[in-house]
Amino acid sequence: MTARALTFRPSRITEPEPFAAMNITPLIDVLLVLIVTLIMTIPMMTHKVPIDLPQGPGTPEKAGIHRIHLDAAGQLAFDGMPIDAASLRGRLDAIRADPDAQLQFSTDGAARYERFDQTLATIKRAGITRLGFVGNEQFRNFDAAK
Fold first, then answer.
1. Could you tell me which residues come within 8 angstroms of residue 138 by beta carbon, excluding any fewer than 6 positions away?
2. How far apart are CA 123 and CA 106, in angstroms?
3. DSSP states of the chain
4. Vertex 98, ends 96 and 102: CA angle to 5°?
């Protein structure tokens, strides 16, 4: 039997060489994202919603203001007097016929949204265009920590 000598050679560890060219693929990706973002935001910045605003110093007239109130139980009151949904439509038609009349709608915070939505749909079907929501100041800081 002959003995063989085992020789271990150290592996060649070479130092990494610097790249001769810069990798511009990430740069192109970032530029494409910026271009797409720019293309999507430009229409939003130039979009206009036409709103018919009053011109000049005017004094609000109190004569033709009517108020509908929806309480927590879902009952409607028209100018402080209880009213049912069937009678409301007739009153709304009279308001629509008067060009100076305004309708204000206030709701109790505990009222059901479904009832609010039904009442608002009735107002819309009646063709009321001069509608204001009052009493919403109490909900201004609704999401603020208590």
1. 109
2. 13
3. -------PPPP---PPPPPSS---HHHHHHHHHHHHHHHHHHHHHH---------S------TTEEEEEE-TTS-EEETTEEE-HHHHHHHHHHHHH-TT-EEEEEE-TTS-HHHHHHHHHHHHHTT---EEE-SGGGGTTTTS--
4. 70
Burial of 75 (0-12, 13-18, 19+ CB in 10 A): middle
Q: In what order do the strands lie in the sheet with 131-133?
A: 81-83, 76-78, 65-70, 102-107, 131-133
Measured CA to CA in angstroms, residue 88 lies from 15, 22, 92 at distances of 87, 74, 6
At position 29, the amino acid (one-letter code) is D
pLDDT in tens, the chain (146 residues): 566 666 666 667 777 777 677 788 999 999 999 999 988 888 777 766 677 776 777 665 556 888 999 998 989 999 889 998 888 888 898 888 888 888 899 888 888 888 988 888 888 888 888 888 887 776 666 666 55
Quote the pTM value.
0.52
